[in-house]
């Protein structure tokens, strides 16, 4: 199966029987990033976390029990 990275438009091929290939076929919204782009984003994020100016805003979970 041939897949295209959403950031660098590089085309990779993966085995059609892998879990990633099955998920990409089943969930069309799911996107693929190549290993180089994934590694680059991970390094940049770690650098931003190290500066101390990086905040993760998460939604507060509301209790559904009434």
SSE diagram, text form:
Elements: E1 2-4, E2 11-13, H1 19-26, H2 35-51
Biggest β-sheet: strands ordered side by side in the sheet: 1-2
Main beta sheet strand tally, sense and closure: 2 strands, antiparallel
Total beta strands = 2
Average pLDDT works out at 87
Q: What sequence of helices (H) and strands (E) makes up the elements?
A: EEHH
Tags for this entry?
2 strands, two-stranded antiparallel sheet, mainly alpha, flat, 66 residues, single chain, 2 helices
What do these coordinates show?
The protein has 66 residues and is mainly α. The protein is built from two helices and two strands, in the order ββαα. It has helices spanning 19-26, 35-51; strands at 2-4, 11-13. The protein has a two-stranded antiparallel sheet with strand order 1-2. The longest helix has 17 residues, at 35-51. 0% of the residues are buried. The model has no long low-confidence stretch (mean pLDDT 87).
Question: Can I get a quick summary?
Answer:
The protein contains 2 helices and 2 strands. With 66 residues, the chain is mainly alpha-helical.
